[in-house]
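quick one
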Amino acid sequence: MTKPSLLILPGDGIGPEVMTEVRKVISWFGQNRGLEFDLSEDLVGGCAYDAHGTPLHDDVMAKAQEVDAVLLGAVGGPEYDNLGFDLKPERGLLRLRKEMDLFANLRPAQCFDALADFSSLKTEIVAGLDIMIVRESTSGVYFGEPRGIFQEGNERIGLNTQRYTESEIDRVARSAFELARRRNNKVCSMEKANVMESGVLWREIVQKVHDADYTDVELTHMYADAGAMQLCRWPKQFDVIVTDNLFGDILSDTAAMLTGSLGMLPSATLGPFMENGRPKAMYEPVHGSAPDIAGKGKANPIACILSFAMALRYSFDNGAEANMLEQAIESVLASGARTPDLMGPDDGKPFTTSQMGDAIVAALR
Ligand code: IPM
Ligand code: MG
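structure w/ magnesium ion:
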């Protein structure tokens, strides 16, 4: 049997550090559970720009199209702020999402018991929290044309276009309903149908998909601003939230922080199924490259390790191993291990990135 292939793109900032810890976990599964991957590694983001003058080399794009899954660390850094728009590190990530047609970005926000006290919200509001945001990720204002900065009379205008086709809304709605069936059977769709035509169409199509094929799933609609408020007021009312690219970007950061730290949250971005029955897929932590702490051993590797757990579950049919890994992380947190993002100023000595990775591998044993 050929080994499943995984392309690792550590990227910039803390990306390489957290990926080193993921590699320890991958090795452990290879040595102890016979899970072998055909691994390759390449550049994306600022480091790719430094090496090749582009945030994603065509060869890497082609490779990403061939492999069974991509695992990405993070991209970006202040040294790239003044680059032209098409050269910015973020464009590498967005190109991967767009060209692989990864339209459903799954962002779970799950509160680990050991961290419930650490959330900025009251413990009872977040304890046991388990929601899933399904963010559309190949369209909307991120990619709509026309876009640009143009001269108009004696001043410039910055222009972006929010654009959704019926089929784009249809397919991401289906992903959300399918997921809800495997969870608590509830979907809340968020848009701004009160001010945006794209929101009116969004609401209409989500409802239509529901009424045609998913009447067993409970569907509600909410304006995205009210949704942000409700996420902070009583997040446990939600199961699956489906929303567009930009609202999903913002709402998923909000939801992530409810759980205590951005350093904990993984994501899976899935596209159409390939011939081998696997979905096109890229896995990445929700957090960014955190250049302020890069290289200092302060990064929390858990979001990236949990992203690998999602890869085990969604790409490689290794649900049992994914559960094992998640339980190992729970037990490490329960034992009190904390990276700096999970600590207050007087909470003692933090674990370094690599100590956290080692603790997770030890817990797997
Ligand atoms: C995310 C990030 C990206 C986005 C950036 C880095 C392009 O914020 O994955 O949430 O806006 O989608
Ligand atoms: Mg974001």
